[in-house]
Amino acid sequence: MTFQLSSDSNIKMVTIVGNGPTDATGFRAALLKVVADPSFRAGYSILVDARSLDYTPTIAECKQFSEFHISTDELIMSKVAVVVTKMVDYGMANMFSTLCEIGGASVRSFQSVPEAENWLAQG
Q1: In angstroms, rounded to a whole number, what is the distance separating the alpha carbons of residues 47 and 44?
Q2: What is the CA radius of gyration of the chain?
Q3: Total-model pTM
Q4: Which of 6, 34, 96, 111 is the most exposed place for a label (fewest CB within 10 A)?
Q5: Burial class (CB in 10 A: 0-12, 13-18, 19+), 105
Q6: pLDDT tens by residue, 61-110
Q7: How far apart are CA 73 and CA 83, in angstroms?
């Protein structure tokens, strides 16, 4: 499992790019790494590019991810875009997004990076 993290303080955005096989533990570890990074600030936008990940979360994992997301101050205050390509992943990302939105977080799923970046750039 590989997650590459990059941060751009000029546009207040963190990008997480996943590649290869992972699981719920690996995905959560990547998010924890973001919020632990001293350059990350609550309120930064987060772009999760999961198009090259070999992983589809289960319904239970989506629920756990959303509970983790809305219970983490740095994440609930950040706008998060999740980009996937497979339809099953898009469905799971939509469920995650809906559960987060119910909990007060701003999360959306997309099938293209430009669409996600445009949404993140909107104030």
Answers
A1: 10
A2: 13
A3: 0.94
A4: 6
A5: buried
A6: 999 999 999 999 889 999 999 999 999 999 999 999 999 999 999 999 99
A7: 22
